Amino acid sequence: MAAQIAVAPISIYHFQQFPGLFLLSNWAILPFIGFFLYFGLGCIVWMLFFVLPKPIVFFLDALVSKMNQLVFWIGGQEEFIFTSLVMDEFTLGLVYALLILTVIVLFQKKIQWLLLAGCCVALLQWHLYSSPAKAEKRFWIAHAYGETILVEKRGKSFTFHSNDPLDEHHFIVNHFTQNYSHSNWMTQPLFNGYIIDEKQLYIIEKDWPTELKLKPNAYYLLKKNPKINLERLVKKQSPKRIIIDGSNTAFYIERWEKTLKETNTAYYITTRMGTYEFNRENEE
To answer: 0.90 exceeded by the pTM?
Structure first.
């Protein structure tokens, strides 16, 4: 129990999940660990001088196999694994400070340590309540082979924009819902354009409306091999960045990349660079 409490915060911080059946696995395995270790060490010493009898080999092999089966079965009970848990560095530090103060209070029982622990709890509650994640806005262009998927996060809600069917088993949906804290998610068809923190994004595809009034210094997403004169678009609109996602074929990507290099235009190819997120780092 003490070991699990000690490693739980760092486990949540790195893996965004917590095993709910850790006590069951400990109770099922720990009583046999001592016997298993001594018996295994005894077998190693025996093998230094004699051949290990086959019945002992079969018994040891069966013991290891049963223990592994038990561990894998417990680990496979996914409904008892709490996922989508997100903890930042400041929260992690406060949790460990509170754990250390709790141990000190239990042993020393001095009022100053108790007050300090109380201040730590108050600071932790304030930080969780005022966390920017509650009002966080993020926007990604995900990389998916043959598909165009835009991911929008507003606070605790996700919206996946795609014209292809998506469900909870889709790897993009699964990735974001497993790695980011959320309360709900939904799907929506793609629009021709988006405004993301005053940045304008246009989606250029095969049947994109030519009457759409494009504005200069915007972002352009090329989707499913659109038939466009990219050089003319670059010269006329001076795009901030051209983004090419995984729905395009390698032939078109190579041809566009050559044009973008010749015109010295900023671009991003998700096939090689991964998911694109709209933020300051990607703009620089």
So the answer is: no
Look up residue 141 and give its two tokens. 């262009």
Per the listing, tokens 């304008």 go with 200
Residues in CB range of 168: below 8 A, 6 or more apart: 174, 177
User: At 23, which amino acid appears?
Assistant: L
Q: Tell me how far apart the terminal alpha carbons of the chain are, to the nearest angstrom.
A: 47
pLDDT at residue 210 in the model: 58
Under 8 Å CB-to-CB from 196, ≥6 apart: which residues?
A: 139, 278
Is 168 among the domain residues?
yes
Domain hosting residue 111, numbered range: 89-130
Looking at the structure, tell me whether residues 264 and 166 fall in a common domain: yes
Chain segment 174-222, per-residue pLDDT in tens: 888 877 777 788 999 998 889 888 889 999 987 666 556 677 889 999 9
Among candidate residues 81, 87, 74, the one with its CA nearest the CA of residue 19: 81
Q: How many domains does the chain have?
A: 3
CB of 138 closer than 8 Å to CB of 282: no
Alpha carbons within 13 angstroms on the beta-carbon side of residue 213 total: 0
